[in-house]
Amino acid sequence: MSGLAQKKEWEFQRAIREAREAKEKKPREEGSQALLLPPAAPPAPAAPLVAPSTVPVPVQEEEKEKAGPLPRRSERALQKAKMKKIYGQPTGTVVHDRLPIFAPTRRPEESTLTIENSWGTGKVIGKIGQNHRNLHDLIMTKGLEYRQGAERELYVLVDPYALAKDLLPNSQPNLEYLLSLLEDMRKAQVTVNYQRKGERSLGGIISEVFDKHKKISEFEGPGGVILEQYHWMITISRTWMLLYDEFLNVRKSNALEIIRAMTSGYSMSLAQFMLDNKHPCEFTLEFVRKTLGINVLAKHFKQEIAKDAERLANLGISIEGQKIRYVPKKGLVSFWNPSKKQ
Predict the structure, then answer these.
(1) Which one, 82, 212, 232, 327, has the greatest CB density within 10 A?
(2) Position 166 pLDDT exceeds 90
(3) What angle do CA 300, 190, 284 make, to 5 degrees?
(4) How many domains does one find in the chain?
(5) Which segments of the chain are extended strands (E)?
(6) Residue 4 covered by a domain
(7) For the whole model, what pTM was predicted?
(8) Which DSSP string do the residues of 124-146 spell out, in sequence order?
C-alpha cells in the first residue's frame, strides 16, 4: 500500500474513533449536569416537645366574636360556693325551726299539731319528730348526689346504710326503721304562714323513695339466699324546696353530730332553734318552751334539757337561771339569703 493510501486509512480510522468517543461522552456530560443540580434545602429543625395540656389551641377571631366573653362568677356566687364547701348543703331554713314543724320529741304520735308563736302559724297532721328532723338533715347534708328537677323538686342519691349508721350510731343499721321515718315524712300534711306572709300548704316533705335505684353489691345471706344492697333515690317535694328559694337558708352540718348525740328531743329542738340566730341572744325558758310547743311546766323543761347541758355548751348554748343564752361559735353555722341579687 502506497504512503498516500496509508495516510487516508489512518485519517478514516481516526474519524471513526473520534465519532465513537463523542457519542460516549454525551451521556456522561448529561449525567454530570444532573449531579450539578443545587442540593435540596435542609429540613427545618424540629420544634421542642411540649406537654399536650399546655399547647394553646388557636381560635379564629370570628369564632371568638360569636362565642362572646366568658361569663364571670360574681363575688356573691363565689362566696356561696365557699360557704357550701365549708358548711355543706343547706340543712334547712329558719321556717323549719321558728315554726316547730318537727315536734320536740323523739317519739311523736299521730296527731294534729297547731302552731302559733311570734314568727307565725302553722299546722302539722301526722307524726314527725326529732328523729325525723335528724334524718331530714342527714339527707340534706350526706347525700352522694343532688339534682334539682324542673319543678324545683330535689333528687338525692343516698347510701341507706350510711344514713342508718349516722342516725343511730349505737344500733345496727335498720333500714325498715329508716323507711318508716321516710313514710311518715311523705304522709305528713304541713301548712305554714311564716311572718304572716300568707298561708301555704307544703304537703309532705318527701314525695317519693325509690329503694332500688342502683345496686351496690350482693352477698350470700342465711340459707344461701342472695341478698342485694342498693342506693336509694329520695325526692324532696317541690313545695318543701320552694322554702329554700324564699327564706333564709341555714347550714348546720358541722353541728349536727352534736345534736344527734343528745338524749332529749327537747334539747334537740332547742339547739335547732337557737342556732338559727346570727348574733348573741338570750330568751327566757318560758318563751322558748311556748315557742317550741313544749307542753310541760318550765321547771320540767329545764330539768330535761339539763341532761344535755354539756352538748348544748359545745354549741354555745347555756342555761343560766330562768334564761337560755346563745353565743355563736365560729365554724358551726352559716346563713344564706336567697332573696338578695346574685
Answers:
(1) 232
(2) yes
(3) 30
(4) 1
(5) 92-93, 111-117, 120-126, 145-148, 154-158, 189-194, 200-203, 206-220, 226-236, 249-251, 281-284, 317-320, 323-326, 334-336
(6) no
(7) 0.72
(8) EEE---HHHHHHHHHHHHH-SEE
172-206 burial string, b = 16+ CB within 10 Å, else e?
A: eeeeeebeebbebbbbbebbbbbeeeeebebbbbb
Name the pairing type of β-strands 323-326 and 317-320: antiparallel
Scanning the structure block, which residue is given the C-alpha cell 304562714? 193
> How does pLDDT run across 17-51, given as a tens digit for each residue?
666 666 555 544 444 444 344 445 555 554 444 44
265 located within any domain = yes
- Structural domain that includes position 126: 75-336
In a domain, 33, yes or no: no
256's grid cell: 349536727
Tens digits of residue pLDDT in 64-84:
445 555 555 566 566 556 555
- φ/ψ (deg, to 5) at 225: -70, 135
Q: Is 67 a domain residue?
A: no
* Percent of the chain scoring above 90 in pLDDT: 56
Phi first, then psi, for residue 227 (nearest 5°) are -105, 145
